[in-house]
Amino acid sequence: MPIPDSLSDPSETTAPPVSAQDQQSQRPGLILAFLCMAGVMTFLDVTVVNVSLPSIEKSLNISEASLQYVVTGYGTILGGFLLLAGRLADTFGRRRMLQAGLVLFALASLTAGVAQDATMLIVSRCIQGLGAAFIAPSALSLLTNTFAEGPARNKALGVWGGMSGMSSVVGVILGGLLTEGPGWRWIFFINVPIGLAAAFAAPFVVPESRSEERRKSFDTLGAILLTAALVLTIYTLGQTIDVGWATARSIGSLAVAGVLLIAFVLVERRAESPLIPLGIFRRRVLTMANIVAILLFGTLVTLFFFASLFMQMVLDYSPIKTGLAYAPLALVTGVGAGIASQLVTKVAAKPVLVAGIAFTIAGMLMLWRLPSDAAYLTEVLPAFLTVGLGLGVSFVPLQVAAFAGTEKSEAGLAAGLISTSQEAGGSLGVAIAATIAFSETRRLEKWAHGDPDLVREARTTVFHQAFIVGVWFAVGAVLIALMLPMLRTSEHDGVPAA
User: Fold this and answer.
1) Residue 111: Cβ-neighbour burial (10 angstroms; 0-12, 13-18, 19+)
2) Within 13 Å and on the Cβ side, how many CA atoms surround 126?
3) Which of 413, 440, 104 has the alpha carbon at shortest distance from 274?
4) What does the DSSP assignment read for 258-316?
5) One domain, residues 339 and 428
6) What distance, in Å, lies between the first and last C-alpha atoms of the chain?
7) Among 172, 207, 242, which residue terminates a domain?
8) Is residue 301 scored above 60 in pLDDT?
9) Helix axes of 284-313 and 349-368: crossing angle, nearest 10 degrees
10) Same domain, 297 and 395
11) How many CA atoms lie within 13 A of 72 on its CB side?
12) How many C-beta neighbours within 10 Å does residue 64 have?
């Protein structure tokens, strides 16, 4: 006798209801686009201000000493709070912290846009940096938790790496266009509707994600010590360009930062719920990936900082022309990241990373050999294409290594670590390159005796020294990368293979 439909087993006749979170997880492309958009906002603002500095200085009558804090204030707070923000995202919810960061970033952009004096603008930039510190690790950890380790994550990281690499260059171009168009204030105003709209849309696009382990308490003391140490370290590295290394100010600041880091380690050893479980640094791949990130981003930021100066001070490019000169580099960086996302799955992370850094070294050596009358098409462009391809290829395997074997509960911590390494590496690279390069400036100026051609040659020599520092940073990165194990992911199940 047939069983009536009303009495049949519902599990056999009806599909289980699909939750909103399940529906969200079924839209990985939309999630990836949304997270990359959030990340791009933070990356753009690292460089978008650079081209606008002369206009800001004139408009607000800011001194040169104060003007540098418009740039360094953002980077210092961003780098100092990344680890704390990543851990807060693991604990209280990654989407929640992403939304908080977006709102904070948007509101700070508004106050920066309406700033009437240096103080208001610098404070707004620092708050922007704080918002960005919550956005970056939250978005990256949501990405790694959305896409399983393997081909899917590799492709997603390829898009993330390509977008992050291109956005720094796009920031220079966008900053120039907005400054010469509606005015410098619009480099900040443009963030307001985008940030607020993204914060509102986040619950409809991205599922919430947090550590399943409920923390008994929050390591407040550890958070204060670590954040203070990182902020002081990154700030001091930036200041060495102006005050030098061998000064009481620099030595004292770095010594205090060292004491704070030692105190942090002692606190973490005894903490019931440590902010950063120190055992995470016993993971060879994670630790080495972060060291490579420090060195590689030392090269990256040195490249952008000194290549911009070279083009404007030696080749007499305008700010807009300088920004547009980077456009092919941005494009090939994205292409390189796309290629790497495929190769990491088919080959392994290690050889792809080594190859990428090797291309980066070759490109930096080409920049090192540029003459004072370098032609863009035949000399500058080939160097940019080579180094851009190398950086794009390097970004993806570096991120893959940084997250390899990471538990979902630690995604925010891993994202905070790699982001902090990148930020600190950039500051360290520029600080060392500037110290070495500018140490010869006075001697070369005396040699030039004011002769325009000799001054151009003297400046070229200074920038050559900076580029060779970038080469040595990249050489260090490739040597560390060679010691990585062979990380290869299965093309089918996403499980790491030896």
Assistant:
1) middle
2) 12
3) 413
4) HHHHHHHHHHHHH-SS-SS-GGGGG-HHHHHHHHHHHHHHHHHHHHHHHHHHHHHHTS-
5) yes
6) 57
7) 207
8) yes
9) 20
10) yes
11) 21
12) 9
Three-state secondary-structure class, residue 456? helix
pLDDT digits (tens, 9 = 90+) for 422-465: 888 887 888 888 888 777 666 666 666 666 777 788 788 888 99
pLDDT of residue 462: 84
- H helical segments located in 147-247: 151-180, 186-189, 191-205, 220-243
Domain that holds residue 256: 219-272
Find the CATH number of the domain harbouring 42. 1.20.1250.20
Based on C-alpha coordinates, what's the Rg of the chain? Answer: 24
Tally of structural domains, the chain: 3
Total residue length of the chain? 498
DSSP H/E element including 30 = helix 28-47
Distance CA 442, CA 448 (A): 10
Asked if 46 and 195 sit in the same domain, the reply is yes
Distance CA 440, CA 292 (A): 29
Tell me if 378 is assigned to some domain.
Answer: yes
Distance CA 326, CA 341 (A): 23
**301 and 408 in a common domain:** yes
Joined tokens for residue 166:
């291109």
| For range 133-152, the mean pLDDT | 87
Closest CA to 399 of 208, 139, 185, 221: 139
- How far apart CA 293 and CA 417 sit, in angstroms, is 10
Query: CA of 405: how far to CAs of 393, 408, 416, 423, in Å?
Result: 21, 9, 16, 23
Please give the structure tokens belonging to residue 476. 């260090």
Same domain, yes or no, for 354 and 479? yes
